Amino acid sequence: MLYKRSSQLFKTAKKYIPGGVNSPVRAFNSVGGNPIFVTHAKGAYLYDVDGNKYIDFISSWGPMILGHAHPEIINEIKNNIDNGTSYGIPTELETQIAKKAVSMAPNIDKIRFVNSGTEACMSAIRLARGYTGREKIIKFKGCYHGHADSFLIEAGSGAVTFGNPSSPGVTNGTAKDTILATYNDLSNVQEIFEKNKDEIAAIILEPVAGNMGCILPKKDFLEGLRELCDNNDSLLIFDEVMTGFRLAKGGVQELLSIKADIVTYGKVVGGGLPVGAFAAKNKIMNLLAPEGSIYQAGTLSGNPIAMIAGLTMLNLLDDNANVYTSLEEKTRYLALEMKNLLIDKGVPFQINQIGSMMSLHFTENPVVDFDGALSGNNSLFKKYFHGMLQNGIYLPPSAFESYFLNDSITKKDLEKTLESFAITLKSF
C-alpha cells in the first residue's frame, strides 16, 4: 500500500501539533513508520487519504461498538444539531441519558457526565477522598486512568512502593499519595493496606485491563479487592471507561458479578463523541456540589450533541442485547483461528480475550500483569503490525493496547483478517 499523502500530512502536522498528533499512541512511535490519516469511516472500515481501505480493529479505541457512522446515531445528531451545539444550561437530554445509564448498569443510583475518561477518573478519586477523609489511593502498574497527575505514576523498586512521577510536571507530593500495586497479585495489595492502615481512600483499577494489552483478572482477584476494601473502609473504583457498556450492558460489574463503589465510564457512553461519566450510590454521589461540598464542574459537560449520540447508542444496546453475544462469538473465533496459525508457525504467543476485547503478545509466558506484557517480543510485534497494515488490517499501533471489535465486522471480514495474518506470518 502507498502512504504518500499520509506521510506528507504527518510531516506538516508535526510543524503545528506536538509530535504531529493529539494523542501519543497515534504517532506510531511503538511500531515505527508514519501514521495513516483517515478521511472517513463506515461500518467496519476505515478509509485513508491515499485511497486505502482497512478493516478496523480499534473502533476509535472502543466507542464504535456498533460500527462507524451508525445510521441511527448519525440521524439523531443531524436532527438535533440545528437546535444548537452548546448551551451551558440544563437540558432534558441529560436526564434521559442519566436515567438510561442507571437502568442498564448495576449498583448505581446517580451519574454525572463529564467530557472524557480522564475527567471521570480524576473526579472519582476526588469523590473517594472526600467521602473517606483519606488521601492515599492504590493503582496498579500498567492500568491507565487518563493523564491526570495522580495517575501518571510508575513503579519503583520493592514489593510495596510509593510511586515516582513518570512524567515531568507531576509533583513528588502528588506521587506520594499514589501507591503502586501489581495487577492480579492480591497479597501485594493486602500488604499495602497493612503498611498504610486507615490511610487508603480507594483502590482504582481497570477490572479488565486494556492498556497493557487485554489482561483478565484472575479468579478471586476482584472478589479479594472487594473484601479488602470492605474490611478497611476504603472504596473500590472500577475504571470502566473501556469496558462499560461494551463487555455487557452493565459492564464488568454485571459480567463478573462484582460490585464497585464508584464506576467511571467513557467511550461507548458517548456514542463516539467526547463523553465521560462517573456513578455511584446516592450516599456517595450526594456529596457532590451543588448538593454537597465536593466540587466538580465542567462548562461543556452534558453537551446536547454528545448527549443525543450517547443516548441513542445506549438505547440501541439496551434494545439489542444479542449484540454482546454476537461480538463475543466473532472475537472468540478470531482468537482461536489466530492461535491455530501461530501454533503451526511455531511462534511463541499468548492471546488474551474476553467479550469483544483481545490482544496478542509474542511471549511464551502467561500475560497476567504489566511485567508479563513487557516480556513480549516487540520486534515481532512491529513486523506483525506493519504486515497486517499492508494487507488492509488496522490494529492498535502498540503491543500494550487491546483490540476492540465492532459488530459491523462480518465473517467475510474475519476471513480476510486471517488470510492477512497467514501472509504476515510468512515474514517471521
Descriptive report:
There is one protein chain. With 428 residues, this protein is α/β, with parallel strands linked by helices. The chain contains 14 helices and 17 strands. An eight-stranded mixed β-sheet has the order 4-13-12-11-10-5-9-7, with helices on both faces. It has a four-stranded mixed β-sheet with strand order 1-2-3-16. It is globular, with a radius of gyration of 21 Å. About 2% of the residues have low confidence.
How would you concisely characterize the structure shown here?
By secondary structure, the protein is of the alpha/beta class. The protein has 14 helices and 17 strands. The protein folds into 2 domains: 171 residues, Aspartate Aminotransferase, domain 1 (Alpha-Beta Complex), CATH 3.90.1150.10; 249 residues, Type I PLP-dependent aspartate aminotransferase-like (Major domain) (Aspartate Aminotransferase, domain 2).
By CATH reckoning, the class of the largest domain would read: Alpha Beta
CATH topology label of the largest domain = Aspartate Aminotransferase, domain 2
Count of distinct structural domains: 2
Radius of gyration: 21 Å
Low-confidence stretches: 155-163
Q: Please identify, by name, the CATH architecture of the largest domain.
A: 3-Layer(aba) Sandwich
How much of the residues is beta strand, in percent?
15-25%
Kindly state the percentage of residues in helix: 25-40%
Count of β-strands: 17
Largest sheet: 8 strands, mixed
Question: Oligomeric status of the shown chains?
Answer: single chain
